[in-house]
Amino acid sequence: MFFKIIISFTLLLSSSLIANSSKPTLIFYCGTTMVKPIKEMAKIIEAKYNCNIKISQGASKDLYDSLKYSKVGDLFLPGSNSYRTNNLKDGYLLEAVEIGYNKAAIFVRKDKNKQNINLDDFVKTSLSSILCNPKAGSIGRETKEIFEKYKGKEFFYDAYDNSVEIGTDSRNLNKALIDKRADITINWRSTAFWEENNKYIDIIEIDEKYAKKEKLKISLLKFSQNKDIAKSFMKFSTSKQGQEIMKKYGFL
To answer: How many whole angstroms separate alpha carbon 74 and alpha carbon 49?
Structure first.
């Protein structure tokens, strides 16, 4: 199934490149959480450089597997810098720029009393929880680290066994709360500030000794066919205007 998805993705990219051959076309692999600011930046870069930017969004692991298999694309922005450091050995990720931070938080439905809710509630039955698969989205990997730092591996297993649903990425987690399929989750805090989420979700901060700030880095891909424009995008993302866009969407 995985290879069918990757092959379809590669064919889609190839068709897109052919259809827009009159302009340079950049492929940007972007974790779900960062799509909104990246889309806004992309419009500015497209207008300035007369190019097209195609954004492929999804779970960080799936995105890396896609670019590794297809060897097509220009930029990669995962939800956790570990997807860069752990894959540098493959040689596909070149220079990178840091564009900000994200941090995990406990998300609670607004119609629930958030007073006194903490990490221990993920092993109780008084509230239903959805958690992200640690082998899929970056927030899943972060959630695993938080639970293990908090009370060890046993707590991690108990929390996942207690969850009513396992999600795939940050968007999936938020939708479960909005649809009232679950009461609480752990998600990237920036997504709670988005217009479609902030009417339904409150956040509870997690102590930084358990939930550290995660660096967000855009990496240039080795097989990029548009390195000059890709580097211009990277430079813009660290500029004053680029940083204002990041803050607008709740990133630290």
So the answer is: 15
